[in-house]
Specification:
alpha/beta; Transcription Regulator spoIIAA; five-stranded mixed beta barrel; three-stranded parallel beta sheet; 16 strands; binds S-adenosylmethionine; binds iron/sulfur cluster
């Protein structure tokens, strides 16, 4: 989300005739777009202090702006580091960009990729999970009008983009002023003519509907990839986190999704060391990870409030989960060996499957194109694949057929 916000800020700057400096030393204006979800990200911004002081010494004209998710508790100290702290909604006024009275999300983006585009469909959150700063830092939910999203995507597809990644803190609760909800929005995007992939981040289990599963299963342009944060495998901890679902409900969603979309790649977020998490409660998370067999998990150590799980213990718990993940991710990836898959080339030596698996290519391929690829080997975090030329593409199996053949767990 922050990367996407930065792309929109960059466009505003460009439209107000700012030019990109060749490096930070040559800049007259520096805009820092901050994330406060974890203390490590906040500390990185504090760490800029010395650099900015030196830059100012060499260039007294330099102006520094801090925007993004800034917590009130950090503002006082940040005021000493930056010339101004600006709410991202008002950044257009500050840099004289022509964006007045519209959400910054409505501003076009200066995409950093020429083939993948982040499109924010909403921002903010109403859920107030007890560990999370997002509702305070980004405010309540706001959904962009669907007509605006559709026309932006139509323009992006016309420019030849191959991948649209829809963004929101909780895309499942997207609802615009006309009552259009997320599955309907997905269907409309899917109906835009063209050969492109659609994916979305992130979903909340409590709002994950059967209708959404149906739309995903019946829309070939939607990637068979689902990021669904579970956070913990223990119901008491989930309650304390204010997540509003149980482990059993989470498992039920995963079973339904795997039944309807056998080739699905599933990733998750987990927090270890939530205040008061006992070894027994943590054991439930290990059990759940072994049961679900995630393809990927972003395992965070609870940050940073004082609590009774020590730093050392949190580190050890994260290592234990990473070990389980490495095993299940490798097992899942090994099922791809011998398959021919459709892939998007993201660097000359790297591609990704429609289900978001990274592939190291055995020979270079053209950046930003769809290719077919023979998977020859698998590691935990990536596949190894050989790009095929057009004559070798005839008998590509669909991901769905491959998944059925390989009996991926449902
Ligand atoms: N809205 C998404 C959801 O509910 O699944 C998550 C968005 S949140 C910004 C991204 C992730 O950051 C969370 O899923 C959580 O695992 C992690 N996170 C948030 N607050 C945290 C904290 N205090 N300590 C550690 N990790 C945290
Ligand atoms: Fe944070 Fe996600 Fe919970 Fe919202 S739903 S409070 S963004 S973790």
């Amino acid at each position: 989300m922050n990367e996407s916000d930065s792309e929109r800020i960059a466009h505003m700057l460009k439209s107000a005739n700012y030019k990109s400096a060749p490096n930070i030393d040559g800049a007259d204006l520096i805009v820092v777009n901050m994330c406060s979800v974890r203390q490590s990200a906040v500390n990185r911004v504090y760490g800029l202090n010395k650099k900015l002081v030196n830059l100012k010494k060499n260039n007294p004209k330099l102006k520094t702006i801090l925007t993004g998710c800034v917590l009130n508790s950090d503002k006082q100290k940040m005021k000493k580091i930056f010339d101004q702290i600006v709410n991202i909604q008002n950044i257009d006024k500050l840099i004289n960009a022509h964006q007045v009275n519209k959400s910054y999300l409505s501003c076009p983006a200066l995409f950093s990729s020429s083939f993948s585009a982040y499109v924010p469909i909403m921002t903010g959150c109403n859920n107030f999970c007890s560990y999370c700063v997002v509702p305070y830092a980004r405010g309540r939910e706001y959904s962009r009008p669907s007509s605006e999203i559709i026309s932006e995507i139509q323009g992006i597809i016309k420019k030849g983009y191959l991948e649209i990644i829809l963004l929101g803190q909780n895309v499942n609760s997207y609802k615009d002023k006309n009552g259009q909800h997320f599955p309907e929005l997905l269907k409309t995007i899917h109906n835009i003519p063209g050969d492109f992939w659609i994916s979305f981040l992130t979903s909340h289990p409590k709002d994950f509907s059967d209708e959404l599963i149906e739309v995903m299963a019946n829309s070939p342009k939607i990637c068979p990839y689902l990021h669904l944060a579970v956070q913990s495998g223990n119901n008491q901890i989930l309650k304390k986190m204010n997540r509003n679902y149980t482990v059993e409900q989470y498992q039920k969603i995963i079973s339904k999704v795997r039944k309807k979309i056998p080739q699905i790649n599933i990733s998750t977020d987990i927090i270890v060391g939530f205040p008061g998490e006992t070894k027994k409660q943590f054991a439930n998370t290990k059990k759940l990870m072994r049961k679900i067999k995630f393809d990927m998990a972003y395992i965070a150590q609870y940050s940073p409030r004082p609590n009774n799980v020590s730093f050392k213990e949190k580190k050890e718990r994260a290592l234990v989960l990473n070990k389980i993940l490495k095993k299940t991710a490798l097992q899942n990836n090994q099922k791809y060996i011998g398959r021919k898959v459709e892939a998007l080339v993201i660097t000359p030596s790297q591609a990704k499957t429609k289900s978001f698996k990274k592939i190291r290519l055995t020979k270079p391929a053209v950046l930003g194109t769809f290719i077919s690829c023979q998977i020859t080997d698998a590691q935990a975090w990536r596949l190894i694949g050989h790009p095929l030329d057009a004559t070798q593409n005839d008998n590509i199996n669909s991901d769905q057929q491959n998944a059925k053949r390989d009996n991926i767990p449902v």
